[in-house]
């Protein structure tokens, strides 16, 4: 596990007319304020990343399909420097219905591993800005997908 | 249209690896603060409702499938008292990808009209509480679905 990543199980409550799923409450650990909520679709087998946020805290919930996330820590002063951490999040497997909280400074990439397109929600603590993030091509960080 | 309902078109940005969809920003009209985000699935043809929130403002976005919403205004002092308002929101039709902002005091029910299960996101300005909402059976408000 990388310092700065936290995983929280979320509830899916079964109801006859359609389930209710929890997401994020302002009292939840890792909630740093509301700037924006947006959604990222991922085509099967495609990988989005790498991206590192310098200021923004992310709260990620997979709402459709299944996504494999990979995080990489290259922070000089981090006790988990050089480490990768991978986790699968899913809307269709109750055990894998989770919120992933990502603090600033960690590289992230994610791949759709479901047969159909996946949908990812991200609640961020400040409105989206390209100025506070860095990008690298997939092959610039050495990870075997 | 009922006073207290606002409709905002949202962007779906096409990208090769999967689209990015807008949701809600804190600077958006109708945003009253963040209490919680949760999700309601709806089985095809099923109707959820009626429900009226007394304090909570809702921000509704359909993220999967298509949902028909019906709102009813029975507020004594409202200039739209007695009126119904219906609108369809969809994730698959860019023209119908919208945010519906619902201020307190309005009855709401919604039906899944897509072939597959629909998924609705709701951002509310205070954490969920059963104490600030009223419910009625479907047949208690006279609407022909």
The largest β sheet of chain A comes out as: 5 strands, antiparallel
Low-confidence stretches of chain A: none
Assigned CATH superfamily of chain A: Jelly Rolls
CATH architecture of chain A: Sandwich
Strand numbers in spatial order across the main sheet of chain A: 1-9-6-11-4
Secondary-structure element order of chain A, as H and E? EEEEEEEEEEEE
How many structural domains are formed by the residues of chain A?
A: 1
Mean pLDDT of chain A: 97
The CATH class of chain A, by name, is Mainly Beta
CATH topology of chain A: Jelly Rolls
Helix and strand content put the structural class of chain A at mainly beta
Classify the beta-strand content of chain A into a percent band.
over 45%
State the helix count of chain A. 0
| Global morphology of chain A | globular
Please report the total strand number of chain A as a whole number.
Answer: 12
Q: Cα-atom Rg of chain A, whole angstroms? A: 15 Å
Structural account:
The structure is a homodimer of 145-residue chains. Chain A has 145 residues and is mainly beta. Chain A has a single domain (5-140), classed as Jelly Rolls, CATH 2.60.120. Chain A contains no helices and twelve strands. Chain A has strands at 5-9, 12-13, 20-25, 36-42, 47-53, 58-64, 66-72, 84-90, 98-102, 107-112, 118-124, 133-135. In chain A, the strands form three sheets. Chain A has a five-stranded antiparallel sheet with strand order 1-9-6-11-4, with no helix packed on it. In chain A, strands 8-7-10-5-12 form a five-stranded antiparallel sheet, with no helix packed on it. In chain A, a hairpin with a 6-residue loop joins strand 2 and strand 3. The radius of gyration of chain A is 15 Å and the shape is globular. The mean pLDDT of chain A is 97. Chain A binds chain B through residues 16-27, 33-43, 46-48, 63-64, 112, 117-119, 121, 123, 127, and chain B through 16-27, 33-43, 46-48, 63-64, 112, 117-119, 121, 123, 127. Strand 3 (20-25) of chain A pairs antiparallel with strand 4 of chain B, so a sheet runs across the interface.
């Amino acid at each position: 596990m990388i310092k700065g990543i936290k995983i929280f199980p979320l509830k899916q409550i079964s109801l006859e007319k359609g389930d209710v799923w929890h997401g994020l409450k302002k009292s939840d650990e890792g909630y740093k304020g509301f700037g924006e909520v947006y959604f990222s679709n991922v085509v099967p087998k495609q990988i989005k990343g790498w991206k590192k946020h310098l200021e923004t805290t992310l709260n990620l919930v997979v709402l459709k399909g299944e996504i494999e996330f990979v995080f990489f820590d290259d922070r000089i002063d981090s006790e988990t420097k050089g480490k990768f951490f991978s986790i699968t999040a899913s809307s269709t497997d109750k055990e894998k219905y989770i919120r992933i909280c990502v603090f600033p400074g960690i590289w992230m990439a994610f791949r759709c591993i479901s047969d159909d397109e996946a949908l990812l929600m991200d609640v961020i603590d400040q409105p989206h800005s390209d100025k506070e993030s860095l990008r690298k091509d997939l092959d610039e960080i050495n990870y075997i997908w």
